[in-house]
Write a structure and sequence with these properties.
The complex is a heterodimer. Chain A is an alpha/beta fold. Helices cover 71% and strands 8% of the residues of chain A. Chain A folds into 2 domains: 91 residues, STAS domain (Transcription Regulator spoIIAA, 2-Layer Sandwich), CATH 3.30.750; 243 residues, no CATH class. In chain A, strand 1 and strand 2 form a beta hairpin. In chain B, the strands form 2 sheets. Chain B has a 6-stranded mixed beta sheet with strand order 6-7-8-3-9-10, sandwiched between helices. Classes of the chains: A alpha/beta, B alpha/beta. At the A-B interface, helix 8 of A face helix 2 and helix 3 of B.
Chain lengths: 382, 278
């Protein structure tokens, strides 16, 4: 038997016979012949035009697979619908089995889907809105659950998992320091540089120090740090809890009478709340140093001059405005990360989706929260 | 020639450790349990069978409280689970142990720490005592001592199941839930696991609720078998009772191509032991 790769491609030859048309199939009638296979099958139907009886002679077919058998059957069906009788001759036993297995089955007609682009768009919009509202409600529900669990935990302070909390603080806080320092240093430098360059035009280059101080302490420090932590720790928490969920470890905790909120969620959320303000402080300082470097290299302001100017800018108020936001950002990041982790279903795809959603949502909420704080502080004139 | 262990000869006392009445469980619009009744008696090994996707795991999870029921009554150790206060519920959970289908070992803890987790959380024991107990459980389930400090990812499938069983037995429970314990095990491993369950059941006086597809397990270690179809328990009793039933699903389950081979072997065994005892 010829190797399928060296057997000739599928082809047919048709000749008129005493009773009708005799069509001889040759070559390899297998899937690897790709487009040619379908073409030749169509040729069977075409060359049978006009005949009342067609004989398909399979004696020269080198190889046949289910695809080829299906196409032969399909051609046969097509001809039969045109009142042409088809007979298959010279098929080997294996070929007969294949032809029987790949017997023609009509494709059920696709259910008529009435579709209109505008309606589809509205439907999509509606679904998105409903899903969004559900997400918000889900988040609120989880927040409520967490508060209730907090209440219970406060009544038994000795059962608090201190070891777990400290371990999480190390992972979430301590190990994030290099990242926070670097990012804030760079952004502080960028802001400082633009401040110098733009304000120089009004001969007010030294006010760049004010700009740097206020921006960093009030907004940038806490915002950047929160976003970095949301990306770094938010995704880690969701992935960790999510993969535990996938492996039924959460269920195992529950049947042992342990509360996943207490064992897994609380230490992580408290670790975030405890460490984010510290990281914000470190971030603030790094950004100020970055600003100092930019002021020195682009504005010729010496470090001594920079810091003495900064002293009057960096008042306690401005610093507090930034730091006060930090625990709230941490709470939001933590709740979203943990909730999305618990929401993971059984598949890897679900895990990936939830981790992505967790990061996007927490960054969004962080920025939204920052906006609310801005309005709030403006309203109380702080 | 297959050797099947004869079923455990405990005459089940009539104290029902689990009593389910008229249970309805559903997801969205789909009802999975439709008025299900079931009893599990103290000291017995109950095998629970049903088609895939029929809800075997759903029932086990509902009894354990992992899923909400729509209506119905579940009594465990004689207590209605709906009426339990938190503290009582905690006590209840310490009287049972669960073996999940894939082990569900805590992946960030070693085997020893996994086994000690229930002990640490619910009892006030010295570290040394907990270590000794953990090694004892490891030995009971047939694991070598060096498995104690391995992480779940370093264990083979059979070892994971044994370690998970050790954790399920950590608090010396009266009731053990097994979710498809022999799935994924080779025939030798599966037979060994069956033997392990039978031995432990006798020595520790366990009541076992075993969800399974494994016909061999049903024959070899189950005192009674309950079958789930169409949202209800359609038969519950000894293997003989189920084999004699003419419910269409039961017939194709036990007397189909695979089932009949085992029936023949089982009957052959019985005939042999009967001959030997006379």
């Amino acid at each position: 038997m010829a190797e399928s790769s060296s057997a000739p491609p599928p082809s047919i030859t048709a000749q008129n016979d005493a009773d009708g048309r005799r069509i001889r199939l040759e070559g390899r009638w297998t899937l690897d012949a790709s487009a040619q296979l379908e073409q030749q099958a169509q040729q069977i139907v075409d060359s049978a035009a006009g005949a009342r009886l067609v004989v398909l002679d399979l004696s020269d077919v080198a190889r046949l697979d289910t695809a080829g058998a299906w196409l032969i059957n399909r051609a046969r069906q097509h001809l039969a619908q045109g009142d042409v009788s088809v007979v298959i001759e010279q098929a080997s036993v294996e070929q007969d089995t294949l032809l029987e297995e790949a017997a023609y089955r009509p494709r059920p007609p696709a259910p008529a889907r009435w579709s209109n682009p505008i309606v589809d768009l509205l439907e999509e919009l509606g679904r998105t809105v409903v899903a969004g509202v559900r997400e918000v409600l889900n988040g609120l529900a989880f927040f409520g659950e967490f508060v209730v669990k907090l209440g219970e935990m406060i009544r038994r302070p000795l059962t608090f998992r201190l070891t777990s909390l400290v371990a999480q603080m190390e992972t979430i806080g301590f190990r994030a320091i290099p990242l926070i320092v670097t990012i804030n240093l760079l952004v502080g430098g960028i802001v400082g540089q633009q401040g110098i360059v733009q304000l120089r035009r009004f001969g007010a280059a030294t006010y760049a120090v004010d700009l740097i101080g206020i921006l960093v302490l009030r907004e940038l420090g806490v915002l950047l740090t929160s976003i970095m932590i949301a990306g770094r720790s938010g995704s880690a928490i969701t992935a960790e809890i999510g993969s535990m969920k996938m492996r039924e470890e959460i269920d195992a905790l529950r049947v042992m009478g342990l509360s996943p909120l207490e064992v897994l969620a609380a230490p992580r959320i408290f670790a975030l709340i405890a460490t984010l303000p510290m990281l914000t402080f470190i971030g603030d300082m790094s950004a100020l140093v970055g600003g100092m470097l930019a002021s020195y290299f682009y504005g010729g302001i010496s470090p001594e001059a920079f810091w003495s100017l900064m002293q009057s800018v960096a008042g306690l108020n401005r610093f507090l405005v930034g730091i006060i936001k930090a625990p709230f950002m941490a709470l939001v990041i933590g709740l979203i990360a943990v909730n999305d982790g618990f929401g993971v279903q059984g598949s890897a795809e679900s895990l990936g989706r939830q981790v992505t959603a967790s990061v996007v949502k927490s960054i969004f909420m962080v920025i939204l929260l920052d906006g609310f704080f801005a309005i709030f502080f403006a309203a109380i004139d702080f | 020639m297959m050797t099947l262990i004869a079923p455990a000869e405990t005459a089940p006392e009539k104290e029902a450790l689990i009593r389910v009445r008229d249970l309805y469980v559903g997801f969205g619009e789909r009802l999975v349990m439709k008025g299900l009744d079931l009893d599990v008696y103290r000291g017995e090994v109950l095998g629970f069978v049903g088609g895939s996707g029929q809800g075997k795991s759903v029932l086990a999870r509902t009894i354990l409280g992992l899923l909400q029921k729509r209506s119905g009554r579940i009594e465990i150790f004689g207590e209605d689970v709906d009426k339990l206060a938190q503290a009582e519920r905690r006590k209840l959970e310490q009287r049972w142990g669960v073996l999940f289908q894939n082990g569900a070992l805590f992946s960030s803890l070693t085997v020893r720490q996994n086994i000690q987790m229930p002990m640490r959380e619910t009892r006030d024991l010295s570290q040394r005592f907990m270590d000794e107990l953990a090694m004892l459980k490891l030995d009971l389930v047939g694991l070598k001592p060096d498995a104690a400090d391995k992480f779940p990812s370093e264990l083979s499938g059979g070892m994971v199941k044994r370690a998970a069983l050790a954790r399920a037995l950590a608090l010396d429970p009266e009731l053990v839930f097994l979710d498809e314990p022999t799935s994924g095990l080779d025939p030798i491993g599966a037979a060994e696991f069956d033997e392990l369950i039978a031995t432990l059941q006798k020595t520790l006086g366990l009541t076992v609720f075993m969800v399974t597809h494994d016909l061999d397990s049903l024959y070899s270690i189950c005192d009674r078998v309950a079958a789930l179809a169409e949202g209800k328990v359609i038969a519950a009793g000894t293997m003989e009772t189920l084999l004699a039933s003419d419910h269409p699903w039961l017939r194709s389950y036990f007397h189909g191509v695979r089932g009949s081979r085992l029936v023949a072997a089982f009957d052959g065994e019985d005939a042999d032991t009967a001959k030997q005892s006379t």
